[in-house]
Amino acid sequence: MEKIAGQSILNSLETQFEAFEKSLNGQSKSAAHAVRKEAFSSLMNSGFPGPKNEEYKFTNFTRAVEKNFELNGTNADFGLTEAQISATQIEGLDAHKIVFLNGIYSSELSDNIQVEGLKVESLAEGFKANSALAQSNFGTKANFTEDAFVALNTAFSQHGVTIEIADKAVIEKPIVLYFIGDSSTAELSYHIRNIVVAGKFSQATIIEKFDTVGEHKSFTTSVNEISVSDSAHLRFFKIENDTEQAYHISNIHASQGANSNFKAFTFSLNGAMIRNNLNIKLQAEGIETYMNGLYLLDGKTHVDNHTVADHMMPNCYSNELYKGIMDGSSKGVFNGKIFVRPDAQKTNAFQSNKNILISDKATVNTKPQLEIWADDVSCSHGCTTGQLDMDALFYLQARGIQKDKARAILLKAFANDVLETVENEAIKDYLAAIIEKRLEK
Amino acid sequence: MSKDDQILEEFTSKEYEFGWTVDFEADEAPKGLNDDIIRFISAKKEEPQWMLEWRLEAFHAWQKMKEPEWANVHYPKVDFQDLIYYSAPKKKKKVNSLDEVDPEMIATFERLGISLTEQKRLTGVAVDAVIDSVSVATTFKETLGELGIIFCSFSEAVREHPELIKKHMGSVVPANDNYYAALNAAVFSDGSFCFIPKGVRCPMELSTYFRINAANTGQFERTLIVAEEGSYVSYLEGCTAPMRDENQLHAAVVEIKAAKNAEVKYSTVQNWYPGNKEGKGGIYNFVTKRGICEGDHSKISWTQVETGSAVTWKYPSCILKGDYSIGEFYSVAVTNNYQQADTGTKMIHIGKNTKSRIVSKGISAGKSQNSYRGQVHVMKRATNARNFSQCDSLLMGDKCGAHTFPYIDIENQSAQVEHEATTSKIGEDQIFYCQQRGIDAETAVALIVNGYAKEVLKQLPMEFAVEAQKLLALTLEGSVG
């Protein structure tokens, strides 16, 4: 066996894990902690993904973490002002708000949600109270043997939320999870785990947003384990518009019941290095799944989207649309996998990935991957990379629109395909404003 | 006594020059692979010292390599020490008449429309007409020779044109390129060498010649095609007929070099033994094929029809180095029963205004697995590169699989790259339509499949296109039910 990658990180994690175990006191005998221990030993054995690892081929996150972080296991105290905190929030959005400061639940800033059919609790409290929801769902969807960073998150999971939506409950307002970090005095690092259970026939929208304020670097991971029960409708937004020093790994692992509808939206607008893993298991019949993503990058931002739609049963539909605009010396990576298992006859699966490069130094690596074991299916994928259509640009210029303006119009139109799929007006406006500002600069 | 036999005779009766002796009656090397075996092969082929050194270097590189495991194929590992790396061609078992040949094979030949003489040659029957074909072959050789075209076996080229071999061998696929290429470089038995001088357009499909003159190509063959400035050649490897072959592992290497304005068209029809219906036996076909468009405006085109072999693993690639150079890849890969194919291409755009086109049609039936794996890489300085890829898969039956792994890596903003892939099955309405008109289901499938693969088949030289069409129907026989 070759040398394990990320050995220096592993070394520092070893003592941290011991300290973490001690801090748990009575909880170290719980079912959840058994999972943590297992994840930790799996991580210690396999190490972090090296440069030859196929899944991290174009995104050497291990090296980025080794190079940029000391990971001493503790964060400085949170010291941001109220104004700084509210600046990270989505303006004009009427929502149920949950706030985490440096990865720890803040009961002061979070709404006290009193809505029938909706139960939002801090995961740390849930673990302490030995809640059945936290204990029984923890680690069931996100497989830590497959991804070392999921193992890292699992081993150190303590904070996050559990969201339980009762059968038939329709939650009108979106539930927004704000993770706000303060890196003004030292580097920041924390791991978040959210557990979402959407009951039968329920409807809800969840937004996850990570922000860091400060000069120092931050390394955060989040793992969402989502169960979408039969006939439920769930939308999950991931909005990434953090600083140029923010390293983030996002995991969304969902499984869907019969006739359910799940839409995942990923907007990657800024950050240092972002990795998004979106894994959806279509475990019953009649399911609809939508995966929409937009990455709008410049500077040195590196964004990697890995998505999996795993069709396990017949008569399901999945549709994926990812679009990217790469400027500066940014790097976009896309890997979309569609699996159609032998039982999944009559599957309709579509995937589209379109990229525009607007700078000489920007690169894109894309790999749309279809793996099909059933014959009566209709699957397709398309993938394009190019630059702006010169004819369209000329057309606009001929009508007296300046080149810069014309370019912005075309890019906005390109991005709009994804933006249009957002149903909530407040979220759409918020994103549109950011995109517009970026494209017109 | 043939020339080969003379060489053998000569060799066995003399001491080995490099201080190592053969103490067995040598038509065959003993099992296993080590420095001595390589010396033995090299000596058997009367190769010069530099060739031996090249082989040994490749062998030492190979020893340090690991067998690649990333491909989407599963098979029992090959024990490389349990193989015989050299056996003289004359060992081939001769059959006296076609009556002794497997009747199933004869039936196949007849349906493919292969002539009686050729049938005999392919099955290894001693043919009287051999003299005829030799003379025909010689005529061909003379015609080619007048134009300055060199077309001969690799060993002959090593002897007669060492300067060309030295210059070009390993320049496209280096000896240590990958596991199987290194193995091939160390032990390659023979192969073909083709040199087209400046400004010459090869007047015939080299396949024509090849078909008549091809000796039993070995297990580790090596092909080198060098097209000088402004030349053109079309080359066809393989045969539509099922080859009688005892070798389990085939690790071939093909290198193509195209200078300025040159065009090389390389077509392959591969129909090695795919194993029986239960998936037992069959050939492992691990091939490294690569061409480089060195000069401006050069073009390399790969066309392949893959129907045989238990496991196929090959990626004919184009390195588009010259400005305005063009790379093309057309492929039909058919798998049935327990066959596995992992095939595709690599298009590396280095020069400006380079273009590539990929059309891959996969057909899987039975319990087979068929993968397309390809890469389109546009390097930083490849301004205005253009690529179009299309990878379609057709599934027949619910036990087979079709997979696509396209890698698209773009480092230049002016690149325009498109990739599309679809997977579907043959429409029941299409079959019904044919059946209504009195065409039975099996023929209907053949008809539809041929239509589906037409874009690729039409790239083949005419005579082979016809055979390839029949071959497709034959391979898929029994897959509809």
TrEMBL record, chain A:
GO terms for biological process: iron-sulfur cluster assembly. SUPFAM superfamilies: Stabilizer of iron transporter SufD. Coiled coil: none annotated. InterPro entries: Fe-S_cluster_assembly_SufBD (IPR055346), SUF_FeS_clus_asmbl_SufBD_core (IPR000825), SUF_FeS_clus_asmbl_SufBD_sf (IPR037284), SUF_FeS_clus_asmbl_SufD (IPR011542), SufBD_N (IPR045595). Residues 187-414 form the SUF system FeS cluster assembly SufBD core domain. Residues 13-175 form the SUF system FeS cluster assembly SufBD N-terminal domain. Belongs to the iron-sulfur cluster assembly SufBD family. NCBIfam families: sufD. This is Fe-S cluster assembly protein SufD. It comes from Roseivirga ehrenbergii (strain DSM 102268 / JCM 13514 / KCTC 12282 / NCIMB 14502 / KMM 6017). The lineage of its organism: Bacteria, Pseudomonadati, Bacteroidota, Cytophagia, Cytophagales.
Automatic annotation (TrEMBL), chain B:
InterPro entries: Fe-S_cluster_assembly_SufBD (IPR055346), SUF_FeS_clus_asmbl_SufB (IPR010231), SUF_FeS_clus_asmbl_SufBD_core (IPR000825), SUF_FeS_clus_asmbl_SufBD_sf (IPR037284), SufBD_N (IPR045595). Residues 210-451 form the SUF system FeS cluster assembly SufBD core domain. SUPFAM superfamilies: Stabilizer of iron transporter SufD. Residues 48-202 form the SUF system FeS cluster assembly SufBD N-terminal domain. GO terms for biological process: iron-sulfur cluster assembly. NCBIfam families: PRK11814.1, sufB. PANTHER family: FES CLUSTER ASSEMBLY PROTEIN SUF, UPF0051 PROTEIN ABCI8, CHLOROPLASTIC-RELATED. Belongs to the iron-sulfur cluster assembly SufBD family. This is Cysteine desulfurase. It comes from Roseivirga seohaensis subsp. aquiponti. The lineage of its organism: Bacteria, Pseudomonadati, Bacteroidota, Cytophagia, Cytophagales.
